[in-house]
Specification:
This protein has helices at residues 6-35, 45-61, 68-88, 94-111, 113-119. The mean pLDDT is 91. Helix 1 packs antiparallel against helix 2 (45-61), helix 1 runs antiparallel to helix 4 and helix 2 runs antiparallel to helix 3. It has 122 residues and is mainly α. The two termini are 22 Å apart.
Length: 122
């Protein structure tokens, strides 16, 4: 596995952050302006931001192979807690949480596209 320079890692983080910001603008703030603040199907900023923070932490965790599985379990627990809290407080429905998850996944995938592209073969 190739080691990336700090400059490359900062570019990856910046790309993911920009995609999340643009996505939240399009999938959260514009729908809130159109249908009001009380809508439940807008993209969850809590999920998107949490995944971005977990992505930042991954750059440190990835250096130690024995920490990877515990980190994935920790990440799933954190995202599950946030999701349950957002549903219980009626701040989002499953569509809003799914949009936040998809947005974050697309952002991380976009920032890691060169790595993903090498692993996908047709």
């Amino acid at each position: 596995m190739k080691k990336y320079t700090p400059k490359e890692n900062i570019r990856r983080l910046s790309t993911a952050g920009i995609v999340i910001l643009v996505g939240l603008f399009l999938l959260k703030y514009i729908p809130m302006q159109l249908w009001g603040d009380a809508i439940l199907f807008d993209a969850s900023a809590h999920i998107s931001i949490a995944m971005f923070v977990l992505y930042i932490l991954w750059f440190f965790i990835d250096q130690n192979k024995s920490w990877r599985i515990p980190f994935f379990i920790f990440s799933l627990v954190i995202l599950a807690i946030i999701s349950l809290q957002r549903i219980i407080t009626l701040a989002h429905n499953d569509t809003g949480l799914l949009l936040g998850l998809i947005l974050s996944t697309v952002a991380i995938g976009t920032s890691q596209w060169d790595v993903i592209q090498k692993k996908i073969e047709f």
